[in-house]
Amino acid sequence: EAQVTQNPRYLITVTGKKLTVTCSQNMNHEYMSWYRQDPGLGLRQIYYSMNVEVTDKGDVPEGYKVSRKEKRNFPLILESPSPNQTSLYFCASSLGAGAGYEQYFGPGTRLTVT
Amino acid sequence: KNQVEQSPQSLIILEGKNCTLQCNYTVSPFSNLRWYKQDTGRGPVSLTIMTFSENTKSNGRYTATLDADTKQSSLHITASQLSDSASYICVVSYSGGYNKLIFGAGTRLAVHP
Predict the structure, then answer these.
(1) Which residue has the higher pLDDT, B29 or A114?
(2) Is A90–B31 a contact, with Cβ atoms under 8 angstroms apart?
(3) pLDDT at position A60 over 90
């Protein structure tokens, strides 16, 4: 089944403890992206990747890191999480980077930082 | 500033009734507009995509309209079902070189029996 998977689905952590949220897609998509969703706001892009070893900042990159060493994986790293990073996170992928390509979203990771 | 605004924020209707959700955008240059459905606890799933030249597009009981002149779109749901309870998100792509999406905050629809 074609899909985007994220792990973990739920995570509660403490301020400053490094964590990684994994994202994997099995559709051979070139483009991958991370978003955060907060109440009353639209999804906001954190980072995106056009292809392997090519990443760039989105609208809200502060406090996050990403890497794209393999085409299928795009982990999101929080080196020192803070309470304002408590949010619902979505990974997405699309066949290409152009606006006409549909982005397929993972199931989400709900992160709570205390 | 590129923005997408949706109304209403939330809506409650009875099963079997119709409803219309609104989306206004200021994104430029415009590439396309999608409506996504997001079930609780799930990622968004695309319902329709509309380009500049398209006025109407249907997907089953969902019909999206686009007025590129006034920069408005609507999503009409016919004969609503309990499974239509979800958030509906309007997403506009602009021709910024890559797949840059501007998301609306969504309309939360609840269909009651």
Answers:
(1) A114
(2) no
(3) yes
